[in-house]
Specification:
Helix content: 25-40%
Radius of gyration: 29 Å
Shape: globular
Largest sheet: 8 strands, mixed
Low-confidence stretches: 442-447
Strand order of the largest sheet: 18-19-21-20-22-23-24-25
Number of helices: 26
Oligomer: single chain
Length: 734
């Protein structure tokens, strides 16, 4: 009977890319137990992977790196030895090792030659007896971080000894790559006469390091190299550089890697390769977009495909391809790049309905993120960008752009906002800076003269408008039957809506209801003493008491505010979409989003929305239970008045999904007028069966939970009723 083996690995560095997800999931899918050790939470670990704290093995905060390559591989070299020592029988695998078939080796010696000639031994796969001399010797050697390795070139040994004699010993982090890895393992294997314990080349490394790029070629090339002896297949993470630079951080179509991600149901577009060492690829720029939410992404000129896809995968944002030429003019016919860009997005699961093309000046609108890579300010003159900046930036926009030294971009862009350097590179002796532009927020966001004038007109003689420069209240009276208190972002209202009205203005007006629109001048979460004082004043003067029914409404930040400030009107109803309960880190330490508000004070009677809304008649919360952070906030609403309506696999921006499905308006109307029931809600939600995003997420979930037959059944049902490109492509791998 084959020996059942368990494997272990380590990850440091935030979220996994699709390559790590693929390798981890391959072990799960093959039925081989795999444990992932980590020192911090990792948000996207595949289901079935056992997770353990790395401190159980090696308790430290000193994660040493190979400094020249900025790589934690050095720490991993040390960690694997301690893991093997503390977990008898466990086999170490790097996170770029794919399980071709289960490893059932009887011997505790599990290692392989990585090059022809039976000399060099790699440690990407490593198992050793806990009482072996080689493990003892390597642990002893790595205990001295300034040791002079006797297996590096003699000249280098002489240099290290001279430095040590001069009082400046060379730390291991400054020594050659692999000094605690393959170089050390190879040395002790030969020193202790263990070459007979080493597996042949094709066990783990049939595709050697010099041939590693073959993983990016047509799949048959690698298939012909894998043999019946191959178990754990090293994919070589060094391929990440080529993948990031040439393939948008995704596996090339038709390659061996492409076939593997399809086989295991891994979505590369949701976890692209963002960087390698100190090099940040375009997809990695998504981490420079420091916004809590992104509804729209615009690419000027078509050079940010991977960043665009990464942004869409993270925020489910709409995409605008701005088709302008090098002079900032709109061409008479669609540019050639647009079709290829659209095809790239749809091939990677983006619904065509989410992609728009800006072809004329009237198509320019305010967008949350604008990408201008290798465009204006670099290869094109920056002055041609002025019409776009004047129209498309709003106070919470972010622009990612390349700036060529000497282009005049810095003085030109200064009036539009503040520039922050993200990285620099050399282009033929000229420095190119990749930068982030943050528009300068107006000093008095809610006191914008245009908004103030409009708001007073809307209020009329019987309403009111007040502001303090950062927030404003607009009351529009219509009847005493219903008052809707809505929470909105002023910038969104003024730059993204053609009517420049608070959320739901026309909708509420049509019902004949009164409206109190509370506007924030940015991502403030309404944590302003003036806002709280205004609600106290309105409550004390009997403002809310005159209405038969009061409903507080908001989504996300507005959902938080709706629940929190409902405390000013006990007995009111609350309708909140994907709300936060608080951003107080002492209460919700697991909330990793919305850093812009982490320093705000969430104390006081309006601070914790879950507690404040306990005095409401009913709190209706719409949320996606599979969005863990949103579900965490929903779980904090424990009062008996909470009615939680689950919208599985709709995401944080589920309002957008419900709108695309055509059911948002009737649901919200029912919620506001009190007629919405759980039964009517879930009947409306049946429309998700034909919604591409829901179909794709449900299909992926079946794959992730190792139900390929169920996935195939669902895929056939979907494709028999219409086109879903993402599912059609993934079905080919089942």
């Amino acid at each position: 009977m084959a020996r059942e083996r368990e494997v272990g690995t380590l990850w440091i560095g935030g979220a996994l890319s699709w390559m790590e997800q693929l390798c981890l999931k391959s072990f799960v899918d093959q039925g081989q137990k795999i444990t992932l050790f980590a020192y911090d939470d990792i948000p996207n670990v595949p289901a079935g992977v056992i997770r353990r704290d790395g401190r159980e093995i090696y308790d430290t905060a000193d994660f040493i790196k190979y400094e020249k390559k900025d790589s934690f591989a050095l720490f991993a070299d040390l960690f694997r030895l301690h893991m093997i020592a503390k977990c008898p029988g466990m086999i170490w695998v790097d996170t770029d090792v794919y399980c071709h078939r289960p490893m059932d080796y009887d011997s505790d010696y599990v290692m392989g030659f990585e090059l022809p000639g039976a000399q060099r031994v790699n440690n990407a796969v490593l198992g050793l007896p806990v009482d072996s001399a080689i493990l003892h010797d390597m642990l002893a050697f790595t205990s001295d971080r300034f040791a002079v390795p006797g297996f590096v070139k003699p000249k280098l040994q002489d240099e290290y000894r001279a430095a040590a004699a001069a009082g400046h010993p060379v730390h291991v982090s400054q020594q050659p790559w692999g000094v605690w890895g393959p170089m050390m393992v190879t040395h002790f294997v030969h020193k202790l006469g263990l070459t007979d314990k080493v597996q042949p080349l094709d066990a783990f490394y049939p595709v050697t390091f010099p041939d590693r790029i073959r993983f990016l070629r047509r799949a048959g090339v690698v298939r012909d190299m894998v043999t019946r002896h191959t178990t754990a297949l090293h994919l070589w993470a060094s391929n990440k550089r080529e993948l990031g630079l040439r393939y948008a951080g995704l596996p090339p179509k038709g390659s061996y890697l492409d076939q593997l991600v399809q086989k295991h149901g891994v979505r590369p577009e949701a976890a692209p390769i963002k960087g390698r060492g100190k090099r940040v690829f375009d997809a990695g720029l998504v981490d420079a977009i420091d916004l809590p939410e992104v509804a729209s992404f615009a690419d000027l000129g078509g050079n940010a495909q991977s960043l665009c896809l990464a942004a869409h995968a993270r925020w489910d944002c709409d995409i605008v391809l701005v088709d302008i030429d090098h002079r900032g003019a709109f061409p008479q016919s669609e540019s050639a790049w647009v079709a290829g860009y659209r095809e790239f997005l749809t091939e990677n699961g983006v619904d065509q309905g989410r992609i728009k093309v800006a072809r004329k000046p009237g198509d320019l609108k305010a967008w949350d993120v604008i990408a201008n890579l290798s465009g204006f300010g670099d290869v094109n003159k920056i002055k041609h960008l002025e019409p776009v900046l004047q129209t498309c930036l709003h106070s919470d926009s972010r622009m990612i752009l390349d700036i060529r030294k000497g282009s005049g971009s810095y003085p030109f862009l200064k009036p539009f906002g503040d520039l922050e350097s993200l990285s620099t590179r050399d282009d033929g002796g000229v420095e190119i800076t990749r930068a982030r532009l943050r528009p300068k927020p107006p000093a008095m966001a809610s006191s914008d003269p245009e908004w103030s004038k409009l708001a007073r007109q809307l209020a009329g003689p019987k309403g009111f408008y007040t502001d303090n420069g950062a927030h404003s209240f607009l009351y529009i009276p219509r009847s005493d039957r219903v008052l809707v208190v809505s929470f909105d972002n002023l910038d969104i209202a003024m730059t993204k809506r053609e009517d420049r009205r608070p959320w739901g203005f026309a909708f509420i007006e049509k019902q004949g209801w009164s409206m109190l629109g509370v506007m924030a001048g940015g991502w403030t979460w309404y944590r302003d003493a003036w806002v709280a004082a205004e609600f106290d004043r309105l409550a004390a003067t009997g403002f809310f008491a005159r209405f038969d029914r009061v409903v507080f409404y908001g989504a996300s930040m507005g959902g938080y505010a709706a629940a929190a400030f409902s405390a000013a009107c006990p007995g009111a109803d609350v309708v909140a979409i994907s709300p936060q309960s608080t951003l107080d880190k002492s209460v919700v330490p697991w909330e990793t989003r919305y850093k812009v508000a982490w320093d705000k004070d969430f104390s006081g009677k309006y601070g914790d929305a879950a507690a404040a809304s306990a005095s409401a008649r009913q709190v209706t919360i719409l949320y996606d239970p599979y969005e863990p952070l949103d579900a965490g906030h929903a779980d904090r609403f424990t009062a008996p008045n909470a009615v939680k309506l689950r919208t599985p696999l709709m995401g944080h921006r589920l309002g957008s999904s419900l709108h695309q499905m055509g059911i948002l308006n009737p649901i919200i109307l029912g919620a506001l007028d009190g007629s919405l029931t759980e039964l009517s809600f879930y009947r409306s939600l049946r429309a998700r069966k034909t919604f591409p995003r829901y179909q794709r997420e449900l299909f992926k979930r079946a794959i992730d939970h190792n139900h390929p037959a169920l996935a195939r059944q669902m895929g056939r049902w979907v494709l028999a009723r219409g086109e879903n490109r993402a599912i059609r492509l993934e079905m080919q791998g089942l």
